[in-house]
Structures are given as C-alpha cells and as structure tokens.
Design goal:
- The chain folds into 4 domains: 2-97 and 286-305, NAD(P)-binding Rossmann-like Domain (Rossmann fold), CATH 3.40.50; 99-276, NAD(P)-binding Rossmann-like Domain (Rossmann fold, 3-Layer(aba) Sandwich); 318-445, D-3-phosphoglycerate dehydrogenase, domain 3 (60s Ribosomal Protein L30, Chain: A, 2-Layer Sandwich); 454-529, Alpha-Beta Plaits (2-Layer Sandwich).
- Helices cover 33% and strands 24% of the residues.
- The protein contains 17 helices and 22 strands.
- The strands form 4 sheets. The protein has a 7-stranded parallel sheet with strand order 8-7-6-9-10-11-12, with helices on both faces.
- Helix 11 (238-247) links the parallel strand 10 (225-229) and strand 11 (250-255).
- The longest helix has 24 residues, at 319-342.
- The protein starts with a strand and ends with a strand.
C-alpha cells in the first residue's frame, strides 16, 4: 500500500480520487511545521504541496521512501528539483489546471490598474468623492506586450483581443507561427519594451528572467507604461520599479507575487499607483478543485502503473506517445543491462541511435532507460529520473542520433559504449510482432544474432573453426546447464564468430573460466536479466 501526504490542504474532489484508488492512501495534514515534516516524511511514498510547504534538500533526504512530489499548481520554486532528481524522485505539477484563473486575474489586475479601481474603492470608503483624481485609460486600442507565451500568456492574449488590444508577444521557445495563431505579433524583447502600453509577464523565475524588469529594461519602455506580474516573484526588481513610479516613467503596476511571501518590502505599500494582491491568481474554487483532482490522478497513476505525467524533471511525453514507446523503453532497459555486463570498464560515452519510426519520436524515455540500467550495476539509486544527471556527474557523455530511414527493421535501436583504453561495444535491438510483443537483440558489434533479452544469456566470441561449438556444449552439459536456444554469426569464413546461447540457468564464473580456457575462444560473458 502506497502512502501519500498532502501538507497544504486538498480539495474534496482530489480526496475522492484517492478514496476510489486501489493500493494508495492519502493523509491530509495541513500546516505541518518544517521540523515535523522532517520527522514524518520517511513514512510516505508521495508528497503533495501547494506553495506553503518548502520541500528542501533536507526534507528530500529524509524521505527515504519518497518516489514522487506533486505540486498542486504550476510553479515548483518551493521544491528543490535538483535534489529530488538526484534521488530519483519524480516532481510533478499541474500546468493546465489554473491557466484560466491566472489569466483572468491578470486581466482583472490590468483593468483595475487602468481604471484605478482599488484607489477609487478606498477613497469612497473614506467618504471622499474624487472623480477628477481617478481619471483612467482605456484598454481599447492599446498595445499589450506579453512576455512568456505559454498556456497562460496565450489565454491572456485571447481575452485581451476582445478588448480591441494589439498584442505583441516574446517567447524564445515558442514558434512565431504559434504566436500568430493566437492573434499576436512575435517581436524581440527590446521591441516589446519599446512599443507596449501594458506589459505582463508569464514566465518561470530563473537565471534568464530574474530581475528581467529592472532599471535598464524599464528605461527602454514607453513613458507611462503599466506593468503586471502574476507569474513569479523576483522577475521584477521591486526597488527599481518603485524608483520608476517615483519618476513617473511607470504610470502604474500590479503585483500578485513577491520575492518573499508574505511581502516584506514596505516601500511597495506607499504607492496608490500599485495594485497588490497576496498571490491569489490561482485562488478560485474551480482552479483549486482542478489542481487537486489533476495532481491526485497523476500521483495515483504513477505509483500504481509507473506512468509519468506533467513531470518537470522527466521529459514530457503525451500518454498516447508513451503508450507507443513503453515496449521500447523496456527493451532499452534490457539493452543497458546487457551492455553493463558485456562491456565492463570505465565508460566515457554512450551513443544511442534510432532508425525507422522511432527516428521521428521523442525517444528521451528510451535513452534514459538505457542509461539508467547501464549505470545501475555500479551506481546505487539510479533510475530513469536521475540517470542523465548522474551520467553528467561521473563524466559519461550521452549522445543521441536519429533517422527515419531503416535498412532492415521498422524500428531499430543501437547502443554503443565507448570505454577508456578498450574497444567500443555495441548492441542492436528491435521488436517484432504486430503488438510489439517479441523483443530481440539482433546485433552484437557487427555480428548478426537473434537473442531474446530475458533470463540467462551466454555470449562467446570465438575463432570460426570446427569443434568450438561442441566443446562449449560439452562444458555446459558437464555442469548440467541446458541450452534452450542458440545463434551464431560470422562476417566471413575463418573470421571471428559470435555465439549467443540462452540457458535455463545462470552460468557461474568457474564455468566461464573453463570456457575461456578452450583454444580458439576469445572470451565468455554471462548476462542475467
């Protein structure tokens, strides 16, 4: 039975998902103190948080059973993702659940800013009728610059087009075609700064976006620009923003997020041109229900079936594509296991190539599976989540090559390891059958083989000469080891032959030594799957 704890509350609809799940239980303990979390987290397989709980490296280290961390929301800046990845823990979020709520809050902030609604409300409640001081601006005909054109940014564009606004968008990872599909004009960041009447940001906070709005970039903007941040604290330099409000360069700003929350910058409180809300962009009944339900489904699915959805530290693959890839992911795992046993030594590079239909797919899950099982023989705790990270740490370079053409198979995977001071070793594999139910190892180095990657294999490269196969069979027979399947291949008569034997039981080291001692046999390897 898997145990999951939610430390920032959970909507009833999300709780129901766990109640209806088999093999997974949920405990909701809102307001758990950091020191208490450290003491109890070791009992749980999964952790669900919103923004309050800080999942530090220390918490992750204490979570000895922890397999998955779910953030019921988009941002994961309160989770040490690198520490989780190093431990092989999947970190998930719910990127779509609060899209509408956050976009609507952004537009509400823009309207409040343009028409000075919060100030008008405050003055009215003080008994003041200040019509002349509350003149606003229309959104119609104005230019809105959107930095970050993902789900939320593009939905903001959709809403604001209804106001008759001209939309500019900057996003280095979104194609110009996709931006134009949403009725926006793709521009450079400097063009956006120079042309926009309103600017809103919808990006994560990282090395590229931290202090994106600062003294130098504000100077590039129109006089009287209005700025909105409902994304992440730290994207705006707050002191530079206040200076620009003092000078009049910025006519107003609206902030829902802050570098430290609750907000500690008292300077922000003195400006009537500033609209402030306490990180509530995603705080609607509908969004809270959706994020709870989505993260619940994702965690239950991962713990019970292994299917990963919306992970921030594992390549994002659609469920449909993952279904297609799963047989090859398993095959890749077996290929890595085999390479680890037939190519010992200091590995410096792993080259993985894909041919055929696989060449047009996102094959990262397969490459991760190969890498993980290759390293597992010598590295404790490696899995498909942390495999590439660990490979980098130990100096193993992982390279991929793809082509949609294939000479012999509809799909073909070749994995080669390069070793320090030794020859490279490669294996090739494919899957036969309409339902991809027959995995095969079809190449070892340059030799053709036909081996099922399961159970026990004995691999014997030897000189192509009479009597070798008989001697191998005799040795195995003397030790009561039965051969259930075998294949041999040579490139040309008299050259090296490659024998691959499937046996009913493992071939112990002393039997391998006996085989290696036969004249004409170059080596002998056992592979256990």
């Amino acid at each position: 039975m898997y145990k999951v704890i939610a430390t920032d509350g959970m909507d009833a609809a999300g709780i129901d998902v766990f109640k209806n799940a088999s093999g997974v239980t949920l405990e909701v303990r809102k307001g758990v103190k950091p020191e208490e979390l450290m003491q109890i987290i070791g009992d749980y397989d999964g952790l669900i948080v919103r923004s309050a709980t800080k999942v530090t490296a220390e918490v992750i280290e204490a979570g000895k059973k922890l397999r998955v961390i779910g953030r019921a929301g988009v941002g994961v800046d309160n989770v040490d993702v690198k520490a989780a990845s190093r431990r092989g823990i999947v970190v998930m979020n719910t990127p779509e659940a609060n899209t509408i709520s956050t976009a609507e809050h952004t537009v509400a902030m823009m309207c409040a800013l343009a028409r000075q609604i919060p100030r008008a409300d405050a003055l009215m409640k003080q008994g003041q009728w200040e019509k002349k001081a509350l003149t606003g601006v229309e959104l119609y005909g104005k230019t809105l610059g959107i930095i970050g054109f993902g789900r939320i940014g593009s939905w903001v564009a959709t809403i604001c087009r209804g106001f008759g606004m001209h939309i500019l968008a900057y996003d280095p990872v979104v194609s110009p075609e996709r931006i134009m599909e949403h009725g926006a004009t793709p521009v450079s960041l400097d063009e956006l700064f120079a042309q926009s009447d309103f600017i809103t940001v919808h990006t994560p906070v990282n090395n590229e976006t931290r202090n994106l709005v600062r003294k130098e970039t504000i100077a590039k903007m129109k006089d009287g620009v209005r700025l909105i941040n409902c994304a992440r604290g730290g994207i705006f330099n707050e002191d530079d923003l206040c200076d620009a409000l003092d000078s009049g360069k910025v006519a107003g700003a609206a902030l829902d997020v802050f570098p430290k929350e609750p907000n500690e910058n008292t300077r922000l409180l003195k400006y009537h041109q500033l609209v402030l809300t306490p990180h509530i962009a995603a705080s609607t009944d509908e969004a809270q229900s959706r994020v709870s339900v989505e993260i619940a489904h994702q965690i239950v699915q991962y713990l019970t079936t292994g299917l990963i959805t919306n992970a921030v530290n594992v390549p994002a693959v659609s469920s449909q594509l993952l279904q297609q890839l799963m047989p090859f992911v398993e095959l890749g795992s077996r290929m890595g296991t085999m390479l680890a046993q037939i190519a010992p030594g200091k590995l410096t590079q792993l080259n993985v190539s894909y041919e055929g239909e696989l060449g047009a797919m996102d094959t990262a899950p397969i490459t991760n599976a190969i890498t993980a099982s290759l390293l597992a023989a010598n590295v404790e705790g490696v899995n498909q989540v942390n495999a590439r990270l660990i490979a980098d740490e130990i100096g193993l370079k992982v390279c991929e090559h793809k082509t949609t053409t294939s000479r012999n198979y509809a799909n073909y995977i070749r994995a080669e390891v390069v070793r320090a001071g030794d020859d490279p070793v490669s294996i090739g594999a494919t899957i036969f059958g309409e339902n991809r139910q027959h995995p095969r190892i079809v190449r070892i180095n340059h030799s053709h083989v036909d081996a099922v990657p399961e159970g026990y294999l004995l691999i014997v490269p030897h000189v192509d000469q009479p009597g070798i196969l008989g001697k191998i069979g005799t040795i195995l027979g003397n030790h009561n080891i039965n051969i259930s399947r075998m294949t041999c291949d040579r490139l040309q008569p008299g050259s090296t032959n490659f024998g691959v034997y499937t046996t009913d039981q493992d071939v112990p080291e002393h039997v391998l030594q006996e085989i290696r001692a036969v004249k004409g046999i170059l080596d002998a390897h056992r592979v256990v799957f």
